[in-house]
Amino acid sequence: MGNWQLIIEGANTYSPDPERKLARSRMEREVYRQRGTLIVTDYLVNSGGVIFAAQEQLISTPDKLRIPEEMLGNFEGVEKWLNDHSREFSALAEKRRKAAEIARESVIKRNMHELIDHLISDPDMLPCEAAETISISRITTREKDRKASDIMESIITIQSTSTLQEAARLFVETSCPILAVINARDELVGILSNWDITKAASRGPIEKTILEQAMTRQVIAAKPDDLILEVVRKLEYYEISAMPIVEGKKVLGMISTDILASRSLYRLLQTYKD
Predict the structure, then answer these.
(1) Which of 56, 67, 139, 149 fits a 20 to 30 Å CA distance from 185?
(2) What would the pLDDT profile of 148-174 be if each residue is shown by its tens digit?
(3) Which residues contact 59 (CB under 8 A, 6 or more apart)?
């Protein structure tokens, strides 16, 4: 088989930003193609660590080792109860540790097998592309029946007659990735992003600029019944980080890449023991 050179990534955050993804591909093409060094993506090698850290999901705490409700708030009583059950907790911790080690090794080995299989099946595929394919496949399997309405969050709305300065203040105060621009009938007529404000500012002062003059009118949106996979595909295809959830002309909420990441991770940890 020859000699293998590996780079194991530390814990980084996946970025859907097209420029960062392009830079990553250029770097990996040089390292992988020219130098023969395989970069093992962080979310493949660290997934086992996540499982190990969430070992309580592998073996649930039995009812007899749950602090009695009537004792909650009684510091001395809880302390004594914990001391009385210390041996049982130690035994449970050891049992969880062994189960977590087995699960960790199993998951990492499975990830590495799938990574190599993908690279062998498609010689033009980069390791980061193979890792992304594996990750999306896992999420699809577990999330295929969930809908946009299941994970959407509220979105900040603003009247189309408002100024860009008012919108900028909302961005600062709420940290919302996009604003839903509505008319007097509360109908969605556009969206506003930080990029829209930046473009408008490049043309001159924004204090008196009305949103109708700067907003994005061709809105990429999802319906509440759209499956999460469809939402992910839209975000990737249009290279956007957030979109409103719309029913008719009424805006109900929004989904962003941050929401997808946090909600999907929580869901995966919750369902892993199943």
Answers:
(1) 149
(2) 898 899 999 999 999 998 998 898 888
(3) 92, 95, 96, 99
